[in-house]
Structure formats: structure tokens, C-alpha cells
Specification:
Layout lengths: L14 E6 L10 H20 L3 E8 L4 H10 L3 H18 L6 E4 L3 H16 L3 E11 L4 E2 L5 E4 L8 E2 L16 E5 L7 E10 L5 H9 L6 H13 L4 E2 L1 E2 L16 E2 L1 H5 L2 H12 L7 H4 L5 E7 L3 H15 L8 E5 L2 E3 L14 H7 L2 H10 L7 E3 L1 H30 L12 H22 L3 H22 L1 H7 L1 H22 L4 H10 L33 H18 L12
Parallel strand pairs: 1-2, 1-13, 2-3, 13-14, 15-16
Antiparallel strand pairs: 4-5, 4-9, 6-7, 6-8, 9-10, 11-12
Length: 582
């Protein structure tokens, strides 16, 4: 019959640690945060699992530091109470977004605190920590020492007016608060004083050559992550303080460091290891984490926004080297550019953008997942607009994908006895179509492997577009009347292409893909290689119904009105955790 045999690419089962940047728990993430780390990591982790790889996907809430401490003081509540309530809410929202974490924890867990303190004592004992007195910013109005992120000013490199004391989010340079031009307190806007205090520093100068070698010789780093990191290394790495004077955090373990805590960025990045340890402890395997973090065969992949690149590509590798342990060096850090909302940056104070709790009240979660991956800002800043979302949902998700699925399955259900037809007698066009669908699926597979998630999804959609053209050309509704064998050949291959389509979509819209799989009468769990296997004639279909629906401009107006109503409810409440819509 000339059909393709099982053409699955043979691949070795690999072991992966997948980590998404730990969201700061001061507030609920917005859509930009979601696609920048958590959703992108989830899509890749789901893909790897479909391929049969061994995956541990972890993250957690970054609950320490001054923002939480200040917010708690202003509200008159304990910082830990504040942090734990917000952590529980964010964790629940990620579940509702169908994020497939193996563990979503937080930085105030007993496991994380113990691990961080033991880790830094090793770094200290290995001679990479030194002390010095330094002038640090202090706000006389708020009566607190200001962590780097709570002092803002003009960037000395690019002139950006709201650069933070640790990094400019505009040009990505790592900064020191003293480098800022016209610095001011991010809480009250007053001019800070400089006071002398003692801190413990990581001596990055001793690690610079090894870090440079890691970056230069790493073929897996994304172009933007590599370019940014090499630019920093060209300027030379300076020592960075790993301690702070704030109370809410992990107590520094160094001798004579009473009253000091570990800087949140220097402890949160270690969460990728502590979370894997916690995951295996929960599973009853105390030593299980070691094959993921101490076995050089393991691949470690992080997903972050571009502003987090320095801490993942330079700071964390430097810390792993300084520990003296044989940790696996991160394979790559996949970073995205910024997602804008209607042409501007997300802003909680201006209520500009959409937050992930609000999004769930407006559209089904698979619609959001599809749109965000379809427009993922992989190489440049990308704009989310409702007109773009409307086009992606209606023309791509509904018309191209949903319509093709419904055309194939409804026809088999109503005109071919409700079961997969036999291969029939294929014409050249039939073989050409399934060959093209296979090539597209392979291309999507290559894009997923390269963590080009946007390109992967666009390529998968092409399978549906080619399928719609194929049906229009072959017209099985006519063939079934005059040449049933030819109609069988067409619909057998159209059904086969749905296997490619369902598997290719599964990492992005898992619920819809599984629903489609069940309509096709196929058994779960889905596995990637199953797509390459020809359909089994006689397989009975399940209940067939439309997967998606169109969203009209009138619907958008109603959604925006609902969004405003939801926000009026949210901001009339007192506590941040009471403002979340669940």
C-alpha cells in the first residue's frame, strides 16, 4: 500500500532537571511572567515526558526579602504569614493553569533553609567568601537598609531612569547601588543615606576564568543569554555581597554574621537543587536527587525572562564551582524577551496588563496557553493585544485546528461507520499528504528539541492547514459515493495526520489534546512515538464534538468590562491575598 512504516526517530532516554525562575511572591504573576518562565518550562517538560525522558520539573515561590517584609509591616501582619498565604495562592493558580510541576515549593521550607546554609558554609570554607565593610544605602524615612532592588536611579550605561541597584532591566547590566545616578528609595522616593556595615562577599574574581570558559564553550545557550553574559564577562566580574541586613530571610551561617541574612537572589537560585532534594525526600528516596544533580549525564535546563539571565548563567554556575562539589553544570538557560500588553509594559500600579488569576475568569486556560506560546517573545519583545489574541483564537485555534479535527472525525463518524477506515487504495496525492504531515511533525520535533517553542507550535498548526487543503482537494464526501476505496485511503491518512496534530499540540494545550485523543478512540497516556504508527483500521471513535469556539469583538468588549468589574472587586479589599480571584 506504500504507507510509511514506524518512522519514529530512535533516541536514548535522557534525564532532565527542568527549572522555571522562582516567582517573587509579593504579588500574583502576570501573563508576561507566565510565558517568560513557568509556561515555557511546562511546555518543554511535557514534551520531554512525551518523548519518554526522565524529568523532574521544579520551582517555588521566592518568599524572602525586603518587598515581602515591607509589605507585611505596612499591613500590620507577620512576614511569614503574608508570604505563606501568597505562596498557597500562587501554587493553586499554577495548578489551574495546568502547570505540571513535580514539586512547587518555597524558599522558607526547612529543607531549603538547611541546604542553603550548608552550601554557603562549603563555599566559605573553600575560600570564596570574604568580608569587608562597605557603605550601603539606608532610608532614614523608612528606617531600613535598602537591598539593591529597593534603590532605583538612572543607569550609568544606558540612561534608563528606573534601573535597580542590582541590575538595569533595560540593558541587562549587573549594577552596584553606588553606580546609580540620582539614587532614591523605591519605597518612598527619598534620597538614601550611605552607612557603613559589614557584609560577606562572593569573590567572583577567583571564578571568572572558569565561568567564562563555561559560557564560551556552551553550545546550548540561547543567543540572547550568551550575548548578555559575554558582555558582562568582558567588563570583568566584581565581588557580590551575599548577605543583607534585613530580618526576613535565611540567617547567614558564617562566623560572626549574626543579624545578617542571605541575599534572596543568592539563595533562590539554589532552590533548583534543594527542590529536587525535597521532591525525592517526599517520594521516600533520600539519595534519589543525586542522580539528577551529580550525574554528568543529566541535562539541566532553566527557563527565565531576560532580566534573570545573569543570575542563572553567571552567578549560579559560579556558586556551583565554588562549592567544590561535582554538581552538573546547567546545560542551558532558555530566556525570553519581554511580553508587552497593548504596546506597554505590565504595571500593577497602573492596572495595565492581565494577571493570571484574572485570565482564568476570562477565557479557558488552553486558549491562554495557546496564544501565549504562539506569540512567545523568543527573539524580541512581543506585544500582546486583544486583536492579536482574537486572530490567533479564531483563525488559528478554531478555524485551522479545531475545524480540521471536526471535519475529519465527524465525517468518519457519520459517513464511515464511526471507526477508522482501512488504508484503501491510495493515490499519489494521499501518499504525498501523509509524507508532508510526517515531515512537518519531524520539524516540530526538532524545534521542540531546540527549545524553539513558538516555531514548534507554528509548525504543528501547518499540519492542520495542510490537512484542510487536502480534504478540499480530495473531496471525500464525493469519493465515498463513487469510489469507497479511494475515500478510505483519504480518511485513513487524514485520521493519521490527527495523531501528529494531537501529539504536537499536547505540550501546549494538554487538556484539549487529550480530549481530541479520546475522540479519536485512542488509549491514554499519549506517547510521542505513537504518532508515527499507522492507524489501526476499525478503531471506534469516541464522542465527537467541537474542541473550540470563536471569540467575537462583542465578546472581547464583554471580557474587558468583566475585567474592570473584577478589578474593582479586587482593589476594594485590604490584603493582597484577598485581592486574588480564585
Amino acid at each position: 500500500m506504500g504507507e510509511l512504516k514506524n518512522t519514529a526517530v530512535l533516541h536514548n532516554v535522557a534525564r532532565y532537571v527542568i527549572g522555571s525562575a522562582w516567582p517573587y511572591v509579593q504579588t500574583v504573576p502576570h501573563l508576561g511572567n507566565m510565558i517568560g518562565s513557568v509556561l515555557s518550562a511546562d511546555v518543554y517538560a511535557r514534551y520531554l515526558r512525551l518523548r519518554g525522558h526522565e524529568v523532574v520539573f521544579v520551582s517555588g515561590s521566592d518568599v524572602h526579602g525586603t518587598p515581602v517584609e515591607v509589605e507585611a509591616i505596612q499591613l500590620g501582619v507577620d512576614p511569614q504569614e503574608y508570604a505563606m498565604k501568597m505562596h498557597a495562592i500562587v501554587a493553586e493558580l499554577f495548578k489551574r493553569w495546568n502547570i505540571s510541576f513535580d514539586l512547587y515549593t518555597h524558599t522558607h521550607s526547612e529543607n531549603h533553609i538547611k541546604y542553603v546554609q550548608e552550601f554557603y558554609m562549603k563555599v566559605y570554607q573553600n575560600g570564596y567568601i570574604f568580608t569587608r565593610e562597605d557603605e550601603v544605602p539606608y532610608c532614614p524615612r523608612d528606617k531600613i537598609y535598602l537591598p539593591d532592588r529597593f534603590i532605583i536611579g538612572r543607569c550609568p550605561y544606558c540612561g534608563y531612569e528606573r534601573a535597580r541597584g542590582d541590575q538595569c532591566e533595560n540593558c541587562g547590566r549587573l549594577l552596584d547601588p553606588k553606580q546609580l545616578v540620582e539614587p532614591r528609595c523605591a519605597i518612598c522616593g527619598s534620597k538614601p543615606e550611605w552607612r557603613v556595615t559589614k557584609h560577606w562577599y562572593l569573590d567572583l574574581r577567583k571564578l571568572e576564568d572558569r565561568v567564562r570558559k563555561y559560557v564560551e564553550e556552551n553550545p546550548h545557550l540561547s543567543p540572547n543569554a550568551k550575548e548578555m553574559s559575554l558582555a558582562m564577562l568582558k567588563e570583568g566580574l566584581r565581588p557580590r555581597a551575599v548577605t543583607r541586613d534585613n530580618k526576613w530571610g535565611i540567617p547567614a551561617p558564617f562566623p560572626d554574621a549574626e543579624g545578617k541574612t542571605i541575599y534572596v537572589w543568592f539563595e533562590a537560585v539554589l532552590g533548583y537543587i534543594s527542590a529536587v532534594i525535597e521532591h525525592f525526600k517526599n517520594a521516600g528516596s533520600e539519595e534519589g536527587w543525586k542522580k539528577f544533580w551529580l550525574d554528568p549525564e543529566t541535562k539541566v535546563v532553566f527557563f527565565v525572562g531576560k532580566d534573570n539571565v545573569p543570575f542563572h548563567v553567571i552567578i549560579l554556575p559560579a556558586l556551583l564551582m565554588a562549592s567544590g562539589e561535582s554538581y552538573v553544570m546547567p546545560t542551558t538557560t532558555a530566556s525570553t524577551e519581554y511580553l508587552l500588553y497593548e504596546g506597554d509594559k505590565f504595571s500593577k500600579s497602573r492596572r495595565w496588563g492581565i494577571w493570571i488569576d484574572e485570565a482564568l475568569q476570562l477565557l479557558p486556560v488552553d486558549y491562554w496557553r495557546f496564544v501565549l506560546v504562539y506569540i512567545r517573545p523568543e527573539n524580541r519583545d512581543t506585544n500582546y493585544s486583544w486583536s492579536t489574541a482574537l486572530e490567533v483564537i479564531n483563525k488559528v485555534l478554531n478555524d485551522d485546528v479545531g475545524n480540521y479535527v471536526n471535519r475529519v472525525l465527524s465525517f468518519i463518524k457519520s459517513r464511515m461507520g464511526g471507526a477508522v477506515p482501512p488504508p484503501g487504495k491510495p493515490a499519489h496525492e494521499d501518499e504525498e499528504f501523509i509524507d508532508k504531515a510526517t515531515r512537518l511533525f519531524r520539524q516540530a520535533e526538532a524545534h521542540y528539541d531546540a527549545i524553539e517553542l513558538k516555531n514548534a507550535l507554528h509548525t504543528v498548526v501547518e499540519i492542520a492547514r495542510e490537512g484542510n487543503k487536502y480534504l478540499n482537494s480530495r473531496a471525500p464526501w464525493d469519493l465515498v459515493k463513487r469510489d469507497p476505496e479511494a475515500a478510505n485511503a483519504v480518511m485513513h491518512r487524514a485520521y493519521w495526520s490527527l495523531k501528529y496534530l494531537a501529539l504536537g499540540l499536547a505540550p501546549v494545550i494538554p487538556d484539549s489534546a487529550e480530549q481530541m485523543w479520546k475522540m479519536m478512540g485512542l488509549a491514554t497516556p499519549m506517547t510521542w512515538d505513537e504518532a508515527y504508527r499507522p492507524p489501526t483500521p476499525g478503531t471506534p471513535l469516541g464522542d465527537v464534538k467541537p474542541l473550540f469556539r470563536k471569540i467575537t469583538e462583542g465578546d472581547v468588549k464583554a471580557l474587558l468590562a468583566k475585567l474592570e468589574e473584577l478589578r474593582n472587586q479586587k482593589y476594594s479589599r485590604r490584603y493582597p491575598w484577598e485581592q486574588v480571584i480564585l
